UniProtKB/TrEMBL annotation:
Homotrimer. This is Copper-containing nitrite reductase. InterPro entries: Cu-oxidase-like_N, Cu-oxidase_C, Cu-oxidase_fam, Cu_oxidase_Cu_BS, Cupredoxin, NO2-reductase_Cu. Signal peptide: none annotated. Its EC number is 1.7.2.1. It holds the Pfam family Cu-oxidase_2. It catalyses: nitric oxide + Fe(III)-[cytochrome c] + H2O = Fe(II)-[cytochrome c] + nitrite + 2 H(+).
Length: 658
């Protein structure tokens, strides 16, 4: 765990302890005096009560708002300062024995009691703020805080009339009922509208200047019409069929997995084509009561072929069919998966490898050594504590490779969490990241490479006379001349750093100068209700979908995107339809080979600046590829001016992209 994560979680603990300090202060009431009912002293007590009630209301609103702001901003220093202030204030409110109130008399609070009451009410406000039981605007906070304060005032007045144990029981029951009602209301209020039209976003509206094909012109283009340019008539055509169907799959561990599969296999069939080929994939859906799509992860397909339910197409219903058709213009390692309820469907098995070999790659002669070219997909079944596999193998596999044979390992992390792949036993080069070649990759004495969810990397080496071991946590593969799974004990290789690896070269996107557009995404971590569920919400600029910002661009724009992770977890941010060039990490420019990504893992405390050309018109998703995070609202859209869509998503539609 890094220093930022330690500070972050310490801040969260301090924030959770803040209400405890407040409640402790509230329990320490000051001295009281007893006055007869109806006396002038009693009337004075009522006036004092009203005055302090107003003061408590104002203090609670101010402190509740402060708590909301600092808890939302996730600034570690603010948590510590707030707790220190509470401790100091709690010290002013020292426990003092109470005077008992005889029948027919008022208990008049001493000067310390209003301070304690302020913190008692503020504690509820802080808890309410931290749980985010209301919308994050000031009106919602004022309303909830005022209601809580009013309840506190009524209960305090009740205490004047019903002191002792009976009053305490009544207060506890009333507060518990108020909290229960608040949670119920918040859960219902957080439910998303039954239908969310993507065209409802102002950033997606047609009719503004700049259509996809001709910046500055007027007119609207529907995403369904963005099918790409007409392919070369001489292009080789590959026809594939993917049938989504349930199956029970045995793992090497002996566990039987109730899976959803493409063509009955896990992973789905490997689709391998040559750069420039025309790809036609017919998707059939034989799943019971579930729609399905196919998204081509990392492939910059035309927008209509992107396979996102509710954005670029309707989910294919049970018994339905859809044909994806595009030119495989980019050589590299990619993968495909469902983008309908992807947090569930990918985990259950709807994924596979998609490999595009270079057009100019020399073909080996009949007498030469044939290279090994393996696509290796890491996946985890079940929960986060489930079974991890490479393919279907949950243990250590053995593969026979003759010495001197070229080997290319295409590593694909088909999981939501980051995965570390370690290769030892030979000199190796990292040849590509996210389907893009590294310029002049250097030899490494083994490597340890971190891949965020959805990311890929290609490793190449020449098979030695001794075993080569690839590990990904508890699973791995041993490549050896005799085909035995003999491992070796070696020092752990250095962590691979793509920001400094390889050498600089010219890029299609200029690395200097000002962009046409620059957006910033701040990732924060909040407890809140989302669509009727209590979740840890990872917000983008303080919002969850559908309230997240829209990245509005015009065709031809040079776009910079700064991503700041102020949460405590990694977030692999995946941009559909585009590859982006990493310019900076934590304010320092990259110095190695141009580092192109379609899925960028942003660790806690990290800041990245990336740049891309808006050269693929459409409405595209940008989301965290920890698919559970995306399902909880960590999603936004990159929208081209003049592009609209007729597809809808939401509870009353068949489209559930996450």
């Amino acid at each position: 765990m890094g220093l930022y994560s330690i500070v972050h979680y310490a801040d969260m603990i301090l924030a959770l302890l803040l209400p405890v300090f407040g409640l402790t202060a509230a329990a320490a009431v000051g001295p009281r005096s007893v006055v007869p009912r109806g006396s002038s002293a009693a009337r004075t007590a009522v006036v004092a009560f009203g005055t302090t009630a107003i003061l408590r209301l104002l203090c609670t609103l101010a402190l509740g708002w402060f708590g909301w702001v600092f808890l939302a901003s996730r600034l570690p220093a603010a948590g510590g300062c707030a707790v220190v202030c509470v401790v100091l204030l709690a010290g002013w409110v020292r426990p003092v024995p109470r005077a008992s109130a005889p029948t027919g008399a008022h208990e008049v609070p001493g000067w310390r009691s209003p301070v304690a009451a302020v913190w008692a009410t503020t504690a509820v406000a802080f808890i309410t703020s931290y749980a985010q039981l209301v919308s994050p605007d000031l009106a919602g906070i004022v309303t909830v805080t005022a209601v809580v304060t009013l309840i506190a005032e009524v209960l305090w007045w009740w205490r004047l009339r019903a002191p002792g144990r009976r009053g305490t029981v009544v207060r506890v029951v009333a507060v518990a009922a108020a909290i229960g009602i608040g949670i119920s209301v918040a859960a219902q209020a957080s439910t998303l509208p039954p239908e969310l039209a993507v065209t409802g976003h102002s950033g997606h509206q047609p009719g503004s200047a700049g259509s996809p094909g001709s910046p500055g012109s007027l007119g609207a283009v529907d995403v369904a019409a963005l099918t790409g340019t007409r392919p070369d008539p001489s292009a080789v055509v590959h026809h594939f069929t993917l049938t989504a169907q349930p199956a029970t799959i045995p793992l090497s561990s002996g566990q039987q997995v109730s899976a959803w599969t493409f063509n009955g296999t896990i992973p789905g069939p490997e689709l391998r084509v040559t750069q420039g080929d025309l790809v036609e994939v017919t998707l059939h859906n034989e799943l019971p009561d579930a729609g399905v799509t196919v998204h081509w992860h990392g492939v910059d397909v035309p927008n209509a072929m992107d396979g996102v339910a509710g954005v670029t197409q309707d989910a294919v219903p049970p018994g339905g069919t859809f044909v994806y058709r595009f030119v495989a213009a980019q050589a590299g390692t990619y993968w495909y998966h469902s983008h309908q309820q992807s947090s569930e469907q990918v985990r259950r098995g709807l994924y596979g490898a998609f490999i595009v070999t270079p057009r100019d790659q020399p073909q080996p002669d009949a007498g030469t050594v044939q290279p090994v070219d393996d696509a290796i997909l890491r996946h985890r079944w079940g929960s986060e504590e489930g079974v991890t596999t490479l393919g279907l193998d949950a243990g250590l596999q053995a593969r026979q490779v003759d010495p001197g044979r070229p080997v290319r390992l295409r590593l694909i992390n088909a999981e939501t969490d980051p995965a570390t792949f370690t290769l030892t036993g030979t000199t190796v080069r990292v040849a590509a990241i996210d389907g893009t070649d590294i310029h002049q990759p250097a030899d490494l004495p083994g490597t340890r490479i971190l891949l965020g969810g959805g990311s890929r990397a290609d490793l190449i080496f020449t098979m030695p006379t001794t075993p080569v071991v690839l590990r990904a946590g508890t699973v791995g593969i041993v490549y050896s001349p005799d085909g035995r799974a003999d491992t070796h004990t070696v020092a752990v290789p250095a962590q691979f750093d793509p920001a400094t690896y390889g050498t600089l070269t010219a890029t299609t996107v200029p690395t200097g100068g000002a962009p046409d557009r620059h957006y910033t995404l701040r990732i924060d971590e909040r407890l809140r209700f989302y669509d009727g569920r209590f979740v840890v919400g990872y917000t983008l600029n303080d919002a969850l979908y559908p309230d997240t910002p829209v990245l509005q661009v015009t065709a031809g724009d040079l776009v910079d995107l700064t991503i700041i992770n102020r949460s405590g977890l990694d977030h692999p941010m995946h941009l559909h339809g585009h590859h982006a060039l990493v310019l900076q990490r934590d304010g320092r420019p990259t110095t190695g080979s141009p580092w192109w990504v379609d899925t960028l893992n942003v660790a806690p405390g990290q800041t990245y600046r990336i740049r891309f050309r808006a050269d693929n018109p459409g409405i595209w998703m940008e989301h965290c590829h920890n698919l559970e995070h995306a399902a909880d609202g960590m999603t936004l859209h990159l929208a081209y001016t003049g592009v609209t869509t007729t597809f809808h998503t939401g509870g009353i539609t068949a489209n559930q992209p996450e």
